[in-house]
Design goal:
Layout lengths: L9 H13 L4 H9 L8 H15 L6 H11 L5 H11 L6 H29 L4 H17 L13 H13 L12 H7 L7 E6 L5 H15 L3 E6 L4 H13 L3 H6 L4 H15 L3 E4 L6 H14 L3 E7 L12 H19 L3 E6 L17 H7 L2 E6 L1 H4 L8 E9 L6 E8 L2 E4 L2 H15 L9
Parallel strand pairs: 1-5, 1-6, 2-3, 2-4, 4-5
Antiparallel strand pairs: 6-7, 7-8, 8-9
Helix pairs in contact: 1-3, 1-5, 1-6, 4-5, 6-7, 7-14, 10-11, 11-13, 14-15, 15-16
Length: 456
């Protein structure tokens, strides 16, 4: 690849630094210090000078030729010396043109970053790197380059009024229906008011609690019953295993009967109904293992272009995703949840992510502390739900068949609480509240028996 002279404007950089030295307290100077970073400047000398000015400003130190030269001379001899600082201070045209100068330097910086991305991509191609790896790295670098720009200016709050009124009007036309995507579970929808289009939803649970099955229940409710477009990333089960679970849930056929192929005429009829429903559903699946955020992001973007009506994205599960490079495991996890939240906002489609929770002992119920690397996950998630079945921890419990969906965080609707469900033939269905209350009362008596009264 032919490398031309990198985009730069040395004279403009000198004008900026000279203006900052001459009047660092001017409003345009303060805005310039906040808007730029040292790597926006091309030369090492200019980077060193700007970085020292920024550091002195943040530390509330007085900035002039003498103090700046004194500080720089203690750290490096590559900044050009006192004479160079004095020349920039003398030749500057002042602070009033700083916003225009900042824009020029930012543009050159962005162009240099884009050129570097192209060079890096060319080097990886020549070295025989895999296309998926190259695409992922380029995608991440382009995102970082975009984030480093200042972005759009802030808007006055009243400019949002029209958009909000339109959304309110849509809600009123729905006649009180949930504002977001319906889960198909009435009590859950009532609590959380549906799933918002930019949500990152965490479905957590210890092993064998049923978090994957719960996600499949939601996917079937949305993709089969509501006929909406759904993506399901399965990194734990194969496509056939996943399909069989959907057949079991949609057709109301026990999974063990499907595995043993013990099907009577009635069961065959329900299987046929399930197959017909899945043929006309909006569910799209992949069982590619160990996928990275970059690979998922690329698939989602392509699918969204072909299917603008995409309504939900399910990922099973976080622990099986490919981690990016990071100093610590929790940082790598945080990068994934942050990127998934950004993806949900970009495509305006909720992402439902399965997360493995740490094991706990009865009679405890799971909470945020049971999430692995919980601080990162909790910060990025809009909605966190734990799937809990007491019979997994305590076989002698009287709460057999009861699944508790514990809403531990609801950022937008304050729907915290518990929804009770029953696991039947490959899906979860709501459980009668009165029945649950009776079982809970019996369980309480079992755990805390009333001592028998002694006779006289």
């Amino acid at each position: 690849m032919i490398i031309n002279e990198p985009p730069k404007n040395t004279e403009v950089e000198q004008q900026i630094l000279g203006a900052l030295i001459k009047d660092p307290t001017h409003s345009n100077s303060r805005e310039t210090i906040d808007s730029l970073c040292d790597d926006d400047f091309f030369g090492m000398a200019h980077r060193l000078i700007f970085n020292e000015i920024k550091t002195m400003s943040e530390n509330k130190e007085s900035i002039d030729l003498i103090t700046l030269d004194n500080n720089l001379s203690k750290k490096s001899d590559q900044y050009g010396g006192f004479v160079y600082l004095a020349d920039m201070n003398k030749n500057t045209t002042g602070n009033y043109n700083l916003p225009a100068y900042v824009a020029i330097v930012k543009k050159c910086s962005q162009l240099r970053k884009l050129a570097k991305i192209l060079v890096d991509a060319s080097d990886m191609i020549n070295q025989g790197a895999e296309p998926v790896e190259i695409t992922e790295i380029i995608d991440n670098e382009l995102k970082d380059a975009a984030v480093s720009s200042s972005g759009a200016e802030l808007r006055h709050i009243n400019t949002v009024e029209g958009d909000w009124l339109d959304r309110l009007d849509e809600r009123m036309k729905q006649g009180g229906a949930c504002a977001g995507l319906s889960t198909g579970i009435d009590e859950l929808d009532e609590r959380i008011n549906g799933i918002g289009e930019e949500y990152l939803v965490i479905v957590a649970g210890a092993p064998s609690m049923g978090k994957t099955l719960f996600c499949q229940t939601l996917a079937a409710n949305i993709g089969v019953d509501q006929k909406k477009n759904v993506m399901f990333f399965s990194m734990e089960m194969s496509e056939i295993e996943l399909y069989e679970r959907f057949v079991s849930g949609v057709g109301n056929v026990p999974a063990k009967e499907l595995r043993a192929a013990r099907l009577d005429a009635q069961a065959f009829g329900r299987v046929e109904v399930a197959l017909t429903s899945l043929r006309t559903s909006g569910i799209h699946i992949t069982d590619q293992p160990k996928q990275s955020v970059g690979q998922i992001r690329a698939k989602v973007r392509r699918h969204k272009l072909k299917n603008p009506d995409l309504s939900a994205i399910f990922i099973d599960y976080l622990g099986l995703m490919k981690l990016g490079k990071a100093d610590r495991h929790d940082i790598a996890i945080g990068n994934i949840t942050r990127d998934l939240k950004e993806l949900a906002k970009e495509v305006k489609v909720p992402i439902i992510l399965c997360v493995q929770a740490n094991r706990y002992k009865a009679p405890m119920r799971p909470n945020m502390s049971n999430l692995k690397d919980s601080s990162c996950i909790e910060a990025d998630a809009d909605l966190i739900m734990f799937v809990h079945r007491q019979e997994v921890l305590e076989p002698e419990t009287l709460l057999k068949g009861v699944t508790e969906l514990i809403i531990a965080k609801d950022r937008h609707s304050d729907g915290n609480g518990t929804v009770y469900m029953e696991k039947i033939n490959g899906k979860f269905i709501p459980l009668n509240v009165e029945q649950v209350a009776r079982m809970q009362h019996e369980e309480e008596n079992r755990l805390n028996p009333v001592p028998a009264k002694r006779g006289m």
